[in-house]
Amino acid sequence: MPASARLNPAAQEAPLDPRIAREAAQWLMRVHPAAEPDENELHACQQWRASHAEHELAWQRAQQLNAKFGIMPPMLGKAALGRPFARSPEQQRRAAVKKLALLLTLAPASLLAYRQLPVNAWRADYRTATGERRNVQLADGSHVRMNTGSAFDAVYDDTQRLLILHEGELLIETARDSRSPARPFRVQTADGRIRAIGTRFTVKRVAAWSDVAVFEGAVEVQARDDAMQTRILAANHQLRFSATGLDETEALISHNADWTHGILHADNQRLADFCAELSRHRRGWLRCDPAVADLRISGSFQLDDTDRILRALVGTLPVRITFHTRYWVAIQPA
């Protein structure tokens, strides 16, 4: 009988202890075929697994996640082709262990949402987890603020400065290039490409479209499948675009970048849309009952405490919050 079977069903569905999750990730790295483990290491790993039921459960989950996402690099000592700043083997190992340990700390229910994410997002140069925000300074001095659940690659060479946004949202402040001639600064999403013209702007990629909003300077936006679909977007304007075209330009929403200060703002927003945005900052499933989906909400909410935001809904709307588990929450009619 597998060691994990000795855990009761609730324990098997619970998130793992972060320490055990990291140990499982480290063991998987040590006995990964690319690491060429010897018999002593394989035996030590087997002993660790057998020493506690939660160790075996963590090991099984680690193997499943690695099989799904390919987190452990198959060639640990080989630099990534075409990457001007390829990571060293040790950097690859540390990044892989960190990603896998993070996934292992989530409950299985939470992982269902992550299984739909593109593999490139997990292999990205920069990534944030659910509920995490991060500041990044790039090689040319440009600054990037990453919202929750975001992932991008930075490709700098002799001809370009390119960010490839796989998912999520970035606030970008471009720096003057020290090279001569200056290399263009571009952001690429699945829907097209944005060229910065000395600017401060946000790019968001969710569902089947991308959003861009300009605070300073200007950007040029081009749809992926139609080179003629190009537009200069000036400061204090925003637009949405897909691979096939650009929507109409609109005035910039004043609270567009409130997330950089840890604030979620709503202005007479449908509750269903508010919950969809809130769920990006919260691990697990957050469901809004269709019976209350069209209720309207306004206000500014601190993202560092999403439970508090949910409790605030009860005080302002005719709803109740049902916690089936910590990671499975429903908003229903009161």
Domains (count): 3
Number of helices: 9
Tell me the number of strands: 17
- Which CATH class of the largest domain? Mainly Beta
How far apart, in Å, are the first and last alpha carbons? 46 Å
Structural class by SSE content: alpha+beta
Mean pLDDT: 83
Percent of sequence in beta strands: 25-35%
What would your notes on this structure say?
The chain is of the alpha+beta class and 334 residues long. It folds into 3 domains: 3-105, no CATH class; 126-251, Jelly Rolls (Sandwich), CATH 2.60.120; 262-333, 3-Layer(bab) Sandwich (Phage tail protein beta-alpha-beta fold), CATH 3.55.50.30. Helix content is 28%, strand content 33%. It is built from 9 helices and 17 strands. The chain has helices at 9-13, 18-30, 39-50, 53-69, 89-104, 108-114, 119-122, 271-279, 306-316, and strands at 126-127, 134-137, 143-146, 151-156, 161-173, 185-189, 192-206, 209-223, 230-234, 237-242, 245-246, 250-251, 263-270, 285-288, 296-302, 319-325, 328-333. Strands 1, 2, 3, 4, 5, 6, 7, 8, 9, 10, 11 and 12 form a 12-stranded mixed sheet that branches. A 3-stranded mixed sheet has the order 14-17-16. Strands 13-15 form a two-stranded antiparallel sheet. β4 and β5 form a beta hairpin. α2 crosses α4 (53-69), α2 crosses α5 (89-104) and α4 (53-69) crosses α5. The longest helix is centred in the N-terminal third of the chain and has 17 residues, at 53-69. The radius of gyration is 22 Å and the shape is flat. The model is unreliable at 75-86 and 109-117 (pLDDT under 50).
